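Tutorial, part two.
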Amino acid sequence: MDTSWLRSFRELREQFAEGAGERLAAIDAALDRLLVEPGDAESLSELRVRFHGLSGTGATFGFPRVSVLGVEGEHACDAVVEAGRPPTSEEIRAWRRLVQEVREQFRADAAPAVEVSAGPATPVETERRVEVLVAHDDTEFRAALAVHLEREGMAVTVASDLANAHALLSKRVPEVLVVDMRFGGGEGGTLVERLRGMPAGDGAAAFVVGAPAGFMDKVEAIRCGADAYFEQPVDWEPFTRRLQQLLERGRAEAPRVLAVEDDPDQAAFVKAVLGSGGYGVRICSDPARFEEEAIAFEPDLVLMDINLPGFSGYDLARFLRQNEKYAAVPVVFLTAEYRAQSRIEAIRAGGDDHLVKPIAPAILLSTVAARIERAQFLKSLIGRDGLTGLLNHTAFLEGARGVVLRQSRNPGKGAAFALIDLDLFRAVNDRHGHPVGDRVLASLGALLRRRVRGSDLVGRLGGEEFAVILEDLTEEEAERLMNRLLEEFSVVLHNGADRSVFHVTFSAGVSGFLPGMSVDTWRQSADDALHAAKSAGRHRVARAAQPKVAP
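Running the prediction step on this input gives:
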């Protein structure tokens, strides 16, 4: 970042802090007037305006807690106005306490500081922004891309020209490269090729974005090593969905391959080859244990021999396909059967590929990699909510069942279920329209993706209800995380269709997992806590008072 901008920002921050005393004095004066004349509508209106000013600018200048307190004061004023009554003396005292906390925050945050939690570390404290390098000459597109990606929590760097782009690549491999093939006089493709040739460059996501192009132009972009080609103007929903899928591919744990093979030498070969490619491999040498092994291992791909003791690989594949849980799991036959009839039988049994022994390691690795990546992409389309990119209702509950199973077998530190519901969201849709409401939902989805670990389950259950399952966190730690997310989301500015800006809050209920809980009872416990938070006034997090355990 330009150092002159940093200096300017520090100066603005200092000016904001220096002017805080005057702003808080004006709030005190309004409170004094209300104490004498509680029905003074003008003073109440000024109080709300002053709190609104704090909520909108505090976080901008590095005082996030000030913004949170400003939102709290603004909402309290709104509640009094909506009730059509003067504020009570207790409400005025609460406002004074809030103002005092704002003063303390300005003193405590006199210089930028990194928050350090006194408690156990939570996912909020380990956030790292995804780095995106953009090599594109269209300034309008770059601006739109920057807004979109920064909302997703990514850090954007723009290359000024081809030489600068190569210089930036030489310093660091970005996690995402967005390039126009025409960049640098038609040399944009060289950037993708260079990225792919760098150590760890294969794991980066490379997108080509350009003007409407012919089929051969798109093929050429893919041939350079790009993951996708998007025409301008960009449809951001599929763009984001594909980007998230590629990023999750890099963060995910090693894909699991279940190899059904009774020959110990062949099994050792498969394990060595796939192990060298970073795959987790389990050998099922006894076909009678196939169902048990599949349930326990949850494979991303099944590598199936055909001639097995007591069974046929075709029969096992058909058995697998009868369970909808494994409908999208690729089945690759690896067999000495080379005849065309065996290939036909493999297809009829639900197989995705047919490899003949002996197999070259490179072909085995390439086939497994391609099949798993394709299956995971299709699964992400089926199991993802199109608006937020989070797990949909069905996929989330399927993941929740897996968590319950793991917790039942090995409790460890525990797990927590958090249900999140946006406050008064219907009013947002009624006032600003559903497109604006959708942007609010997408904003919360982006925040949840940024602030929790890749291993945590995050989903949109429907409407304005979201859910998170956090493993290896206690109920107390999960509550602390939800409170931080609540504070951060409450200061996000949303733009209405009429160019107005507004804030939205949420309420959350948290329930720790207890032995004997099912997915339904665990979710109900979190739902009860959510209702408690709503009943207590919204914009808060509540913990389950008495978790419901199945008898």
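The radius of gyration is 28 Å. In part three we will examine how such features are distributed along the chain.
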